[in-house]
């Protein structure tokens, strides 16, 4: 029987089969020997046990994409959630997530949450910065309900993932959209009991209007996708109108002379923050090349 992994905890995978039933499955031992790890979002073939809600995962079908942070597969869309208030938005993490989506050719949306607490100016700056790189930006408040319709229409009809720092409100947003999800959110009590993270496992949830969404645990460290440094600029759509004007064809837009991208930053046509974080990511890519080939 075919199904999709909606949850995986401690070597047990919950598989929803096409008839809508849930089966708690173990993976075949062969997967471990082959270094293959079933992921939430995986489409699988299972052998159900007769008369119980259990079974065994036999085959993992080909993935359209896979992610290590969060560990999920087959996303159509990534929603990067930022908090416009506390925690302070980690824009480098946001840019890396957008890059990860770009590398996988997965659509990305930026969600600026906690608008009820934020200064209007903070919300505006974040919106402008990310709208200029071509991503839809939705402004939300899980508390007042602002923007939830716009967020829901981004989620409906596809398989999407909510990612971002711990505490930005990913689970709260999903609860506000579908109260029946009943996801645990980061009250103070929940946090002190377990450290910083409230959501501990990725879980794929079905949306009432069709589509699925995965709530993921927040994280801060992220390994930048392994791409040649010269390709990085290609994942910055806001560079595209300018990069043809660089003196060097293989310009990294860093220290080369006559760089049209840097000129555009100087003229305020490309957000400076995005550019500065681009150079940070570029340096990590250059550094990892150096350590590999020395
Ligand atoms: N005022 C306000 N508070 C919010 C909003 N969204 C979330 N919160 C609060 O922020 C805290 C963290 O929310 P969570 O939904 O647990 O955050 P999360 O992103 O799921 O965090 P992890 O599961 O740890 O990754 C909770 O106390 C929420 O009540 C919002 O839009 N406005
Ligand atoms: Mg959560
Ligand atoms: Zn350049």
What does the model show?
The chain is α/β, with parallel strands linked by helices and 294 residues long. It contains nine helices and 13 strands. The protein has a six-stranded mixed β-sheet, with helices on both faces. Helix 2 (91-103) packs across helix 9 (272-293). The model has no long low-confidence stretch (mean pLDDT 92).
Label the structural class. alpha/beta
Distance between the termini: 50 Å
Per the principal axes of the C-alpha atoms, what is the gross shape?
globular
CATH C-level class of the largest domain: Alpha Beta
Strand order of the largest sheet: 10-9-8-11-13-12
Range of strand content:
15-25%
What share of the residues lie within helices? 25-40%
Number of domains: 3
**Helical segment tally?**
9
Order of helices and strands: EEEHEEEEEHEHEHEHHEEHHH
Question: How confident overall, as mean pLDDT?
Answer: 92
Biggest β-sheet strands, sense, barrel? 6 strands, mixed
Over the alpha carbons, how many angstroms does the gyration radius reach? 21 Å
How many strands? 13
Q: What name is given to the CATH topology of the largest domain?
A: Rossmann fold
Low-confidence stretches: none
CATH architecture of the largest domain: 3-Layer(aba) Sandwich
CATH H level of the largest domain: which superfamily?
A: P-loop containing nucleotide triphosphate hydrolases
**Hetero compounds:** guanosine-5'-triphosphate, magnesium ion, zinc ion
């Amino acid at each position: 029987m075919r199904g999709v992994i909606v949850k995986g905890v401690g070597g047990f995978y919950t598989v929803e089969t096409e008839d809508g039933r849930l089966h708690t499955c173990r993976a075949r031992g062969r997967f471990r020997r082959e270094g293959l790890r079933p992921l939430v979002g995986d489409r699988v073939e299972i052998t159900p046990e007769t008369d119980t809600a259990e079974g065994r995962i036999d085959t993992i079908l080909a993935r359209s994409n896979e992610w290590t942070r969060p560990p999920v597969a087959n996303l159509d869309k990534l929603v990067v959630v930022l908090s416009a208030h506390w925690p302070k938005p980690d824009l480098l993490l946001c840019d890396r997530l957008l890059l990860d989506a770009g590398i996988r050719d997965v659509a990305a949306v930026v969600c600026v949450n906690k608008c009820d607490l934020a200064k209007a100016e903070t919300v505006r700056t974040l919106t402008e910065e990310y709208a200029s790189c071509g991503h839809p930006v939705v402004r939300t408040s899980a508390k007042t309900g602002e923007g939830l319709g716009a967020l829901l229409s981004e989620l409906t009809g596809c398989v999407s993932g909510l990612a971002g720092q711990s505490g930005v409100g990913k689970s709260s947003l999903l609860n506000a959209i579908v109260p029946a999800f009943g996801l645990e959110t980061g009250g103070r009590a929940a946090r002190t009991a377990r450290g910083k993270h409230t959501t501990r496992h990725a879980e794929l949830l079905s949306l009432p209007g069709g589509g699925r969404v995965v709530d993921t645990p927040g994280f801060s460290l992220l390994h930048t996708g392994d791409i040649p440094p010269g390709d990085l600029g290609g994942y910055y759509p806001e560079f595209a109108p300018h990069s043809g004007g660089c003196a060097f064809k293989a310009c990294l837009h860093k220290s080369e002379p006559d760089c049209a991208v840097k000129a555009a930053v100087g003229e305020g046509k490309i957000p400076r923050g995005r550019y500065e974080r681009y150079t940070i990511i570029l340096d990590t890519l250059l550094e990892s090349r150096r350590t590999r080939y020395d």
